[in-house]
Amino acid sequence: GQQLNQSPQSMFIQEGEDVSMNCTSSSIFNTWLWYKQDPGEGPVLLIALYKAGELTSNGRLTAQFGTTRKDSFLNISASIPSDVGIYFCAGLGGNQFYFGTGTSLTVIP
Amino acid sequence: DAMVIQNPRYQVTQFGKPVTLSCSQTLNHNVMYWYQQKSSQAPKLLFHYYDKDFNNEADTPDNFQSRRPNTSFCFLDIRSPGLGDAAMYLCATSRYTSGRANSQETQYFGPGTRLLVL
User: HEC states along B27-43?
Assistant: First the structure.
């Protein structure tokens, strides 16, 4: 089936640094979603993107819907320890929903 | 607040002993999903209900069954749990509107049930 590739697979950063991660697909999507999953919890929706080129912010998080509709990017500015977790992208097209492979983020105080 | 609720949060069962996990939602969404997630992996879809219509993924083992008695509740039954079934089980909901460019909308997840098989 469809696979969304996320990179990097894992990141170790110092508190206060900015973070960038991306998600790419071989197919186009109508909607891109970004979720964060804390250990032992379910994924929580961070940002939803509905239009190619769209740039949306949620606090220190900013995500973009790539103009080709085959990729999306998530940036976190001035990271803090509670940003630790796994970030998943997801793509929606028609009646299909696909998860990315995940990016594990560790923030070192 | 509208939400997706899973009970219990942690479940311990014995090898081969049937177990049922439950999910309820107050979002009034017409689609409910069950995912299995193993450590450091993305959630893997087991099956979903569109209203009362059950949709099984091709690679979901027969050991996993589901029931949706009404819009708000959905159950995951594992008939004979094996050691390999130990995982986090996630319930999610969404609204599906046929005829739109995006028939399926954003999925909202519950907190999950961690299953341990002894």
Answer: CCCCEEEEEEECCCCCC
Q: Do A41 and B104 count as a contact with CB atoms less than 8 A apart?
A: no
Q: In this predicted structure, what is the pLDDT of residue A97?
A: 85
The amino acid present at B32, given as its one-letter code, is M
User: pLDDT value at position A54?
Assistant: 93
Strand partners, B77: B20, B65
pLDDT, tens digit, 9 for 90 and up, residues A50-79: 999 999 999 999 999 999 999 999 999 999
- From the list B7, B16, B6, the residue with the least C-alpha distance to B78 is B16
For B112, the closest of A42, A94, A95 (CB atoms) is A42
Give the Cα separation of B105 and B91 in Å (integer).
Answer: 15
Those residues of chain B that have pLDDT short of 50 are none
Which among B40, B42, B104 is the nearest to A99, CB-wise?
B42
